[in-house]
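FAQ: What does the model actually see?

It sees only this:
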Amino acid sequence: MRIHSRDVMESSSRDLMESSGCPKLGPCKPPHSLRVRIDRSTFMVDRNLLVDNCEYFRALFQSGMRECHQEEIQLQCVGVLGFLVLLQVLDGERPMLNSDQIVEAIECTAFLQVLALTKHLINVINSENCLLMYHTAATFGVLDLSHSSALFIRDLYPDLQEEVHTLPHGLVDYIESLLPSSYMAVCSHSPSSELLKDLQRTVCYLDETSKDWKVLTHLPMSTSTTMAGLAVLDNKLYIMGGVHDVSKKVVETGFCYSPATNSWSTICSPQQLRYNFTLIGHEGCLYALGGEFKMKSLSSVERFKVSDGSWSFVSPLPCPAASAVSAVTMNRIFICLWRGQGATDIHEYLPEQDQWLLITTLIRQHSYGLYMVAHKDNLYVMRNGPCEDFLQCVMDRYNLSSGQWTAMSGQYGNSKSSLFTAVVRGDSVFTLSRQVTTEFTVEDQTWRLKRQMKGFGRIGSIYTFLMRLPKTKVSLMENSVDQTQNQNLRDLRSCLSISPQCSDHT
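And it is asked to produce this:
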């Protein structure tokens, strides 16, 4: 693997600092400011910002050493490009990075110990940079980033196998020890009873070797997936709400399935009973968005913290909405809210600020169908055509970095029901219908057909998602997901022979 040098000419560094809004040393020194010198470049940075976000500076300024009182710090083991990325991230930006920036940013977060920068690097892993991320993070001992990159590579292993085997053997072995993501599906089912058992009440997964669907587990009898909220969080499936029958009486108990132990457990329901709502899993929390109750649309949003098992209300949706379309990409939550007359608003939820932010508006007519998935820094909004074109399914792409909409080329014919079950894994999009399961490859202007497999063969609404399933029989698994991940990290440590250190290259 070719690792890029971080040598930067002084003029390039000056241009980068000016373009990123990072002020150079000037005559006026703001309070609590600190001059940080890297090579021949100087940055004026808020000392408190560095102390709050960087373990290195926090330890330095609490050490009692003479550096605590200096107005200038010289950094020897950090490159200009990496430090610029650090400042952008601490300023709230989410920059997409080239290879040189990635290498220096990993070096920077390893040396300065910056959690926010590590999280951003994890959020921008993609098929183009995952090998570089993995190798460099392993070299510098950034284990969370290395593990996340390895998981991403594991999902793309068939496509990247040749490139993967250019890595050191220990890193290849670690990738192969991980569990790949499986494409999962479950139909809409009402609760059953001992007298009226329904053998179709199953959670299924796609066996990509046999190209057929297989049963993973049966739903508990009191579980409803009719108008329910489904989400995967930390590799566990959560089913909340749902209704008993046409009376729309809400199921008040939530259910959680762990593939590691092949077991179901119950959790408490949201404070506001709701059905036909959206459930999102994000950073240790479930979010129940909108929905309906007693035939009335809701705007309320509740958050469930898995750590303490409690629900609490957070900022409501901008307007009442049932079955709001959602997607998560780069660790950001997005929803579509249809407001009529051809207008669909896309909002982002900011958990730290607990607020909804309008990102953009798509002006397109459609009859009734709307769906959204994400790939890299793109949101893909799928819709059926208006009036006589309602069987056609077309897409528009919104790029979060450029803020531009692009109409995707081509029509997808009668595949509307298929595309409205889309799930993205790496550079692939899986969709299904009763007749066929289709895998597309995401390209700049279209989704290219890659392969087709057996259809799901069930009627009714279908929920689709990704989960990592044990390689052996689930009932024999002894470790929990958390224990398995901890063991994975211990295995990764054992295969690394290079620890974080000062270096001009990797």
